[in-house]
Design brief:
By secondary structure, this protein is of the alpha+beta class. The chain has one domain. The chain is built from four helices and six strands. The strands form two sheets. A four-stranded antiparallel sheet has the order 2-1-6-5. Strands 3-4 form a two-stranded antiparallel sheet. The longest helix is centred in the N-terminal third of the chain and has 19 residues. The termini are close together.
Length: about 140
Amino acid sequence: MSRNLTLLPFEGFKESQFSHSILRLCGFSGGWLCCELHNKLEDLTTKAEENKQFVPNHFSTYISMENDESGCEDAHYGVTKRNSYGDPLVYIFVRDLLELEELHKEYYKYDGDFSIDKEKALGTMAYIKTLPENRRIALYWD
């Protein structure tokens, strides 16, 4: 099964309840390294759930699928409380993600596909490295 992970970094201030960024980390489609990276990201998600690191009730993004007053059923800017599987959105910290940086690099080193997805994924990690380590990032699995 192939699953994708989208990162939604909270905006800069402490009380922030929104993300204007939509960053695709990678898709997981097979191979031992892919599975190892996927499992570590799933572990981060599980740990966040156990620690009750759920996004605030009014967390808003550009990938909301929640029906709003207008009845919109397509992705739009609005409250985003659940991922595409219906699970509550959780957040981790930049420092948690940086612990996986070497594994992430290794995954793309052996990937023979030099597609734009690879470039975007490596660019996403480079961007994450510029953020403060205590910045929250919501994890959206689809």
